[in-house]
DNA sequence: GTCTATACCAGGATAGAC
DNA sequence: GTCTATCCTGGTATAGAC
């Protein structure tokens, strides 16, 4: 018996590949594209640099593969969320619940915030990735909300889709501003107040 | 007579300094922090690299100086905007005008968009700059809008500040999403429809 | 398929002439 | 105060052993 890895002496390609992607995620999310070095990626993945290059063409290829993987995996969590199903119930409750969950999910999820930073920060150099992000991410969310709002005749909304965009946009902006740009430390604004303000604006039953 | 610069053979320090900042702006806004090289900054400023280092301690110092300068100069244009004065008039008109101007200003101003990308993208590495941005930028704008909304008793707003944040947040998010992330090419949404939706949501007089 | 070792290049920063 | 020339580190990518 030696001190090496007991289960499988020779690890297979798929294992290495996912280890590399995992290391790449750690580095790219923390440092951004240009500041990340293949050395550190290899170290984080506990793999030699040459192995990284045998699995991915170059730094750019690795980055693109990583982002695509994150889009597919991370997103179902944040945007697909508990409400993959259609929404139903009284607007006040549904909207409050929806906003609350969305903020909670994103604010807790630091890696996802780093991912937002990365996508926005690198959107100049990697426009394709930004386009893919715009295309896939808020699609289902927006569409579900739009349908729900459109079906609530009691709300008297002139443009349900615009309303849905305002709803989501306000919340995403809240996260970008308060969290990514540290506004919470400098011009704080309670999460609950934001949510309540948004719900009141949309529902607006004269209570 | 030689072929060199006729006006002043030896340029002064202040001139060089602003040339360097100008070159730095060009490079940092286009490439981001890490991908920008001091060589290219010097070239863009038509100055030797040593001169750059005589005016600024290092790359980081140059970057910070640049961002601070941009905050002070660029901002009065975009956020101070035509409405530095207090707002007055009927809500529908004022809000529509305000939103329209704000979007117009930001969407036309590509350098400012690059600046947003930069601030968000580098907010992990330069949290101080992000904090300064959060602190100064939308301050006056938000405050003016909040006061205006609070004064319009006809609107029946429960929380004018929350409403003001939703207003600005929706619009900023619109820019980030549609412009910076190229959503306009992939899930387009008319600017005017966004503005109208926002105004309708806030004003909401049953016409 | 994976590692070690290395080629090659570029970037940040500085020394020294003028 | 500004330039030219240079140092040195560290990065991407690959060659060759196992």
UniProtKB/TrEMBL annotation, chains A, B:
UniProt xrefs under Pfam families: TetR_C_7 (PF14246), TetR_N (PF00440)
Record-level GO BP terms: negative regulation of DNA-templated transcription
UniProt cross-references to InterPro entries, sorted A to Z: DNA-bd_HTH_TetR-type_CS, Homeodomain-like_sf, HTH-type_TetR-like_transc_reg, HTH_TetR, Tet_transcr_reg_TetR-rel_C_sf, TetR_C_Proteobacteria
Record keyword DNA-binding present: yes
Protein keywords: DNA-binding, Transcription, Transcription regulation
DNA-binding region: 37-56
One MF annotation (Gene Ontology) recorded for this entry: DNA-binding transcription factor activity
Start and end residues of each HTH tetR-type domain: 14-74
Highest taxon of the lineage: Bacteria
Keyword Ligase: no
PANTHER family, per database record: HTH-TYPE TRANSCRIPTIONAL DUAL REGULATOR CECR, HTH-TYPE TRANSCRIPTIONAL REGULATOR RUTR
Name under which the protein is recorded: Transcriptional regulator, TetR family
Coiled-coil stretches noted in the UniProt entry, renumbered to this chain: none
Protein's organism: Acaryochloris marina (strain MBIC 11017)
């Amino acid at each position: 018996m030696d001190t090496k890895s007991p289960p499988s002496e020779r690890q297979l390609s798929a294992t290495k590949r996912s280890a590399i992607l995992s290391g790449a995620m750690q580095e790219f999310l923390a440092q951004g594209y240009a500041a990340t070095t293949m050395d550190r990626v290899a170290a984080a993945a506990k793999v030699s640099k040459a192995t990284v290059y045998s699995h991915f063409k170059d730094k750019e290829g690795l980055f693109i593969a990583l982002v695509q993987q994150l889009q597919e995996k991370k997103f179902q969590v944040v945007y697909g969320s508990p409400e993959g199903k259609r929404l139903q119930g009284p607007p006040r409750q549904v909207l409050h619940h929806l906003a609350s969950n969305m903020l909670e999910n994103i604010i807790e999820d630091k890696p996802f915030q780093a991912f937002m930073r990365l996508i926005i920060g690198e959107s100049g150099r990697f426009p394709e990735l930004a386009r893919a992000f715009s295309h896939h991410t808020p699609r289902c969310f927006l569409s579900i909300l739009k349908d729900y709002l459109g079906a609530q005749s009691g709300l008297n909304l002139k443009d349900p889709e615009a309303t849905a965009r305002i709803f989501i946009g306000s919340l995403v902006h809240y996260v970008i501003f308060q969290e990514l740009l540290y506004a919470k430390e400098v011009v704080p604004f309670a999460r609950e107040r934001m949510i309540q303000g948004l719900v009141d604006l949309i529902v607006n039953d004269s209570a």
